[in-house]
Fold:
Amino acid sequence: MPLERLQKFLSRAGVASRRAAEEWILAGRVTVNGRVVRELGVKIDPDRDVVKADGRRVRLEPPLTVLLHKPYGYVSTTKDPQGRRVVTELLGEKGARLYPVGRLDYDATGLLLLTNDGELAQRLTHPRYQVPRTYRATVEGEVSRETLHLLADGVEVDNRPVAAAVEVRKLEAEKTVLEITVREGRYHLIKRLLAQVGHPVLKLKRIAFGPLRLGRLPRGAHRVLTPREMEALKAGMKRR
Structure:
C-alpha cells in the first residue's frame, strides 16, 4: 500500500476531520511506532506502521454513517468538559467510533449525521461545497413579506452575507413557524440570522441535510444510511 499523510490516515480512520487531526498532531497527541509526531508532512504505511492517538491504537474500519434524530439537551460532540450528555451516548456501541458532522445547538433538535469517514465529514461541512441544511424555526412575531425578501436577498452575519430560502409553513398568535434553508453551517447561524431581522428563535429543528430528510424517525433514534442515500449525499457535494 502506498504511503499516506498521517493526518489523512487519522481522518479516514474516523479519529477526527483532517483539520482536527492536524491539530492533534501539532499538540503531540499522536505517535507513530512509539514516537511522538508533531510535523504535518509525515507519511506512514497504514499496513505496517503502528499509529496511536491519545494512547489508543488507530485502525481503519469500514466506513459507517448514521442519521440521528437529536433530542433536546445533548451536545454535538464526543466529550463535554461541562459533563453534559453527548450525542454519541444515543448510539450504543456505535458511538465509540463515530463523531458528529457539524453541530446542532444544545437546545436544538433534528437531523444530525455521525460518521467515521473523515473525508466525507470534511466535504459535507466545508463552505465550498454548499450542502443545503433545512430547519423548521419557530420565531417571535409575524414575519412580513419584506423580511422574507430580505432573507432571500442576503443578510449580513459576521460581515458576510447569508442568503436563505424561506417558506412560511404555519402562522400562530404572536409567533411564526418557518422552513429556512441555508448552504453553510456557521456557529448559531440560524439564530443569529433571524435575530438580525428582528425575529428571535424560540424553537429550532433541522429537518433536512442535503438530500436526506428526517422523516418520521423518533426523537433519540438513529439509523444507518443506505447505499443509495450515501450515493445521493456524495453526488450532492459539488464544489462551487
Observations:
- The chain has a mean pLDDT of 90.
- Helices lie at 6-12, 18-26, 118-125, 145-153, 189-196, 227-235.
- The first strand starts at residue 4 and ends at 5.
- Residues 133 and 209 are 5 Å apart (CA to CA).
